[in-house]
Hints:
mainly alpha
Amino acid sequence: MQKQAEDGLRVIDETKLPGKFKIWMMQFGLYPRLAWPLQIYDIALSRVEIIEQKCSVHIRRWLGLPRVTNTSALYGRGGSLELPLTSIVEFTSREKSEQ
């Protein structure tokens, strides 16, 4: 699962698109592709958080943000950035609760 996420992030990173389009590809292409196995198999939350950390690193790089930018600024509402992003942990927990 983690390898699939890393491969997806690498493929998105290698595109020549601007950062905001890379984030769009991650949000609406990679996350749904990862959500299905995360719903079917019982994967530990710590593994999902590792995937989220890797996604956050790429988001910061694509947006040109400093490495010290807090994840709550990326995913939280009412933060300084107020981006319409969903974390993979939130994405999978929401999908599981709808079942």
